[in-house]
Structures are given as C-alpha cells and as structure tokens.
Amino acid sequence: MPLGQEPPQLLKPRLFYEGRKFNFEVNRLRLPNRAEGDWECIRHPGGALAVPVTAEGKLILLRQYRFAVQGRLLEFPAGTIEPNESAAETIRREIQEETGYAASTWRPLGNFALAPGYSDEMIYAFLATDLQPVESMPGDADEDIEVVVFTPDQFEKAILAGEAVDAKSIASFFLAKPFLDLPLP
Q: Three-state SS for 157?
C-alpha cells in the first residue's frame, strides 16, 4: 500500500465528554508517515435536512436562535438522527415539528461532511415537495424558531449578501437549485 493510503494507527483513545447529541474525544494517533499527535474529534450521529418547496415554488425556512453564534440564523429545517432512525425518518419528523408541513414527495439530494476538520457529522439533504399543512407537532422546548418564506431568488440574494445563513443550508440550497428551476407539477 503506498504511503498515505493506510489508515492512522490509534494509540490511545480518550473520551472527554459524552453528551446528549454528541461526544468529544481526543485520540493519540500514529500517521502512516510515523508522526504521532493528538487529534480532537466531535462524534455525531449525523443530521438530516429538508429543502421544503411549496406548490408556488417558494422555500420554507426557519430563523432559529443559535447559542454558539449568539444570534439567529436562517436555516432549512433539520435535525439530529436519533438511534435506530434513518435520515429519511428523521427529516419527516423534523419538518413537521419545525414548520407545520408534511411533504408527500421526497428526493435525496446527497450527503456531505459538515465540518470534517473536527467532526464526523454527515448531513443527508432532501428536497421536500407536495407540502401539506399538518397539525403542529410539539417541537423541542429548547428551540426558538420562526418560520419564514423566501423565493429561491430572495434566498440566494440573502446568501450572497452575507446574511446569517448556516453552511448546511447554503450547501443544500445549491444541491437543490437545479430542481428549483423546473416547473412544479
């Protein structure tokens, strides 16, 4: 196997924090080039995200308060994948809790690493269409969310103007964009 192709050798695993949504570990590794060091990593079960599109072609988004950035971000509905739950099951539940809509048609848009420099979290993105209002499901008590509606052009302009939009929503918007230009049935 060529140098750099073999995986690093785990010398000493250390779990520093075990939380409700993620774990934090610092592991001592030996790289294939024989260098040793400590690498921090957030272990996360992954998340699922929906790009919800109304029959009129408008996007359903959220303005959500996020403690880590001390402010509100514009985001698509998303949630952490629970144990024994698929990404598709997660987002079907989350879209109803966070927006008050259910979707009849789902299209996988792909998945991507959210922050691979320090986390193994993967986001699974879906396009959600044929939306129907549903009776509001109880959301998480620790969330502060406002549902907002944008046209795709308005959202793209908000992104390009530097409005506070999270990275997973930006990436998912551009994954969905080729489908947003198509006429909806």
A: helix
Of 75, 101, 96, the closest CA to residue 139 belongs to 96
Question: Residue 153 pLDDT more than 80?
Answer: yes
- What is d(CA 123, CA 144) in angstroms, rounded to the nearest whole number? 21
Per-residue pLDDT at 1: 47
Please name the residue that has the structure tokens 């998480």. Answer: 140
Question: What is the four-CA torsion angle of 174, 179, 184, 185, rounded to 10 degrees?
Answer: -150
Q: Which residues pair with 124 in a beta bridge?
A: 48, 111
Cα 133 to Cα 50, 66, 76, 139: the distances in Å are: 15, 26, 17, 15
| Domains and their CATH numbers in the chain | 9-43 (no CATH), 47-109+123-180 (3.90.79.10)
Which residues, including other chains, have CB under 8 Å from residue 60's CB and lie 6 or more apart?
A: 52, 53, 54, 76, 77, 99, 101, 131, 147, 148, 149
Q: What is the pLDDT of residues 39-88, one digit of tens each?
A: 999 999 999 999 999 999 999 999 999 998 999 999 999 999 999 999 99
Alpha-carbon distance of 79 to 89, in angstroms, equals 10
96 three-state secondary structure: helix
- Report the C-alpha gap between 185 and 129 in whole angstroms: 10
Q: Which are the contacts of 54, defined by CB distance < 8 A and separation ≥ 6?
A: 60, 131, 149
